[in-house]
Design goal:
single chain, 362 residues, alpha/beta, 4-stranded parallel β-sheet, 13% strand
Length: 362
Amino acid sequence: MSPLAPETQMRQPGAMPQPPLEPAASDNPHDPGADVAGERAASVAGAAREALTTAGGTAIRIGTASWTDPTMTAPGVFYPRGADSAEERLAYYAATFPIVEVDATYYALPSAKTAAAWVERTPPDFTFDTKAHALMTGQPTETKRLPKDLRAALPDELAAKPRLYARDLPGELRDEVWRLYLAGIEPLRASGQLGSVLLQFPKWFFPTSESRDLILEARERLGGVRSAVEFRSETWFNEKNRERTLGFLADHSIPLVLVDGPQGLRSSVPRLGAVTSPELVVVRFHGRRVETWEAAGIPVVDRFRYLYSREELAEWLPRIREAAAATREMHVLMNNCYANYGSTNARELAAMLETELGSGAA
């Protein structure tokens, strides 16, 4: 295999490097720059450090969808100066938040050696949510990013392609992708630190019988590993399909990922509070940057470069409170991971929830 090393477990499209911090637009309150975001974070320092517990016993873990994005690791942005190694950064992050999402497992199959290092560097109650590999959710992957042994087993006509879909692969190689993924995250599962696998389906994944069967197949392939489903097509929640979608997930106790993201686009989904599993609900905040959400050829980090206002975060308090009352565990992840935007918003939301929960928070 050719797994990503711990220091390179970051959000990136293909092999493109992320850009350094760029000047903020001074007239845009949602992109004010790291200094302004840092001032906001300082006012709620310590919030989100531990999971919140509701009066009903639901654990709410709040964190970000990255810990090594280059804009986040820039000097003085989120990490203290001198925290330069992968070990120091993860240890600092895990002392600041109780959960993180691993985005890099979407681009490259995970490495058990790397996952074991994460376990060693974090406390036993720290949680990792991992994103399913692209091939597991009907999306393409770069052929060169596949493990060496898997590439060697490809038929010549497939090995020559720059990108592959799971449908291109012989059945035994599709099976091998799932086996390698599960083997790569096994140290997290064995330690009790694996929260959930995120099955994020693309905007061309429409509500059909075949699609629902693929969701069930994915859950079966994951075995006892918990998963949650995120859609990127508004068709799942239009007037015709909304109740059927929620009913299907609830009938199979499959957690729906609740999403805050740009509205009015083909890949937009409404801001729901629906709970479809009594075990888990996941909430992901993508920012509301409409102009970059479906734009082609831009760095991933710019797609999510958005600092939520406190008022926008407060809109979610009733949904979170009601959803938490219907499930045993909740993961809230800020995917607006430009610089310290996500970490600032995570702390702010945690502080609001502490107040909202009142004496019910432990």
